[in-house]
Amino acid sequence: MTATTINFVRHGKVDNPDHLLYERLPGFHLSDAGRRMAHATGRYIAQSPQLNTVSAVYSSPLERTQETAQAILDELNPVREARGEEDLRIETDPRLIEARNEFRGKRIGYGEGALYRPENLKLVRNLWQPSWGESYRSIAARVQDFAHEKIDEHPGEQIVVVTHESPIWSYRHLLETGRPEHNMLLRKTALASITSITYDVDSKRVLSITYADPAKDIK
Length: 219
Description:
Pfam families: His_Phos_1. The chain is of the alpha/beta class. It has a single domain, classed as Rossmann fold (3-Layer(aba) Sandwich). It contains five helices and six strands; from the N terminus they run βαβαβααβαββ. A six-stranded mixed β-sheet has the order 3-2-4-1-5-6. α1 runs parallel beside α2 (about 65-80).
């Protein structure tokens, strides 16, 4: 049996002093703490004899995920160079992007983002679309499409995929329970954490799901 492992990494903390829901908006970068988180996760990957064999690094197109992926490569590529291997580069894929959200650019609970406003109440009535713009099923489906494609492209290998909390947990919940819908308050996807999913290449059956939080002590 040949197995492929996809290591889904959530991006680090974002610089967001106005506490806006940034969703897919451009211009939101990692904070100082976020960069330290990303490097901590990168060091964790680089120091692991299993993880530092990754053959590819993919990212959502947004700045915060690409910056996290670059920090990981900054830690990983020197290890590869010492083994005489070529540096890895970031490949972006739109299927890894953050969930669509109609509150983008607003501060939830204040001003235009206040939930008591009639126009906002209409957006939160359907709990199957907790991002108020894209359903859990849609989010999980696009991540699964990406995953199955990469399993075939990287048989027997490890890859790193940097994306966002909702895509990671919606997909994991689908794999573990058969449905992507879930309680957002019960997600276990910390900033810069790693959710590793190992698949049988031929059947795409999930063999294991593990979780690590290398940046948990960084605030």
